[in-house]
Write a structure and sequence with these properties.
about 260 residues; ten-stranded antiparallel β-sheet; two-stranded antiparallel sheet; 4 helices; 12 strands; about 25% strand
C-alpha cells in the first residue's frame, strides 16, 4: 500500500514538473514572437537622446572665462590709449596756436573768436601786397589817372603788383562784405574794429567769405588783371582805409 502511494506521489510530481516545463517553453516562445513582430525594423539597442542642446548650454570653462575677461580689459586699454592720443593732439594744437597767433582764413571758430578787433590811430598795418604806390591818396587835391585821362580825388592808394600775387589782411579783421563792380572788380571790405574799415579791390580767387574772421597776414585773395579803369596803370591792388565812414590816408598807418 505504501509503495503504491509513493509511486502515485512521484507520478503527480513528474506531471506537475512536466506541465511547468511546457508552460515555460510556451511562454518563452510567445515573448520571442512578440519581440520579432513589434520590432518594425528599429534597433533593439537603447537610443541616447540628442546631446546638442546640452552641449550648447555647457558652462564656459574657467580658462576661457579668463580669456574673455582679458579681451574686455584689452578693449578698455585701447579706449584709454585713444583718449590719451586725443588729449596729446589737443595739447599739441594748443601749443601750436600759442606760438602762432595768426589764424588762416577759414580757421576754426574758436580760434577766430580769440582775435581782437581793436584797430586805432596808433595801430600799424601790414602791407596787403608789396609794391610801389602808383597812385597816392589825395582827398584835398586832384591827381591824374592815366587810364581815365583825367584828374580827380583818390580816397585810397593804388599799389602795383603782379597778377596772382597773394593779397593779405593788413590787420585782424572780420569780413564785412564781399562784392564786385566795374571799377574795383572783386573787392573785400574788412571791419577792423573801432569804426575802422579797409577795402581791398582788384582781386581774384577770393579765399574768404562774409562774416569770417581773419588775422593779420592771412591771404584774402590774389591780384587780378586790372579793370578797364586801370588798364594803363597795369595790375594793381586798390586799398582804401576809412574811419567812421571817412577816408584816411592808409600810408599814415602802414608799418
Amino acid at each position: 500500500m505504501k509503495e503504491k502511494m509513493s509511486q502515485l506521489f512521484k507520478d503527480k510530481v513528474f506531471l506537475v514538473l512536466l506541465v511547468l516545463g511546457l508552460l515555460t517553453i510556451v511562454a518563452a516562445a510567445g515573448v520571442i514572437t512578440i519581440q520579432r513582430g513589434n520590432n518594425d525594423g528599429q534597433s533593439p539597442y537603447l537610443e541616447v537622446p540628442d546631446q546638442k542642446g546640452v552641449i550648447a548650454e555647457e558652462t564656459i570653462p574657467q580658462e576661457n572665462q579668463v580669456a574673455v575677461a582679458g579681451d574686455s580689459n584689452a578693449e578698455q586699454n585701447l579706449d584709454a590709449d585713444t583718449q590719451v592720443a586725443d588729449s596729446a593732439k589737443a595739447t599739441a594744437k594748443a601749443e601750436t596756436e600759442a606760438k602762432n597767433p595768426a589764424v588762416k582764413a577759414g580757421a576754426e571758430k574758436e580760434a577766430a573768436a580769440a582775435l581782437v578787433l581793436n584797430f586805432n590811430d596808433a595801430t600799424k598795418m601790414a602791407w596787403p601786397v608789396s609794391g610801389n604806390v602808383i597812385l597816392d591818396y589825395s582827398m584835398e587835391s586832384t591827381i591824374y589817372f592815366p587810364t581815365l585821362d583825367q584828374y580827380k580825388c583818390n580816397p585810397g592808394i593804388v599799389i602795383q603788383g603782379a597778377v596772382s600775387t597773394p593779397v593779405v589782411a593788413p590787420a585782424n579783421a572780420k569780413i564785412q562784405e564781399i562784392g564786385s563792380n566795374e571799377e574795383l572788380g572783386n573787392y573785400v571790405i574788412l571791419n577792423m574794429g573801432n569804426d575802422y574799415t579797409a577795402v581791398c579791390g582788384q582781386l581774384k580767387e577770393l579765399q574768404v567769405v562774409e562774416n569770417e574772421y581773419v588775422a593779420q597776414g592771412d591771404v584774402l585773395g590774389y591780384v587780378a588783371e586790372p579793370t578797364k579803369y586801370y588798364s594803363i596803370e597795369g595790375a594793381n591792388l586798390y586799398f582804401e582805409l576809412e574811419h567812421e565812414n571817412q577816408p584816411v590816408d592808409p600810408l599814415d598807418y602802414m608799418q
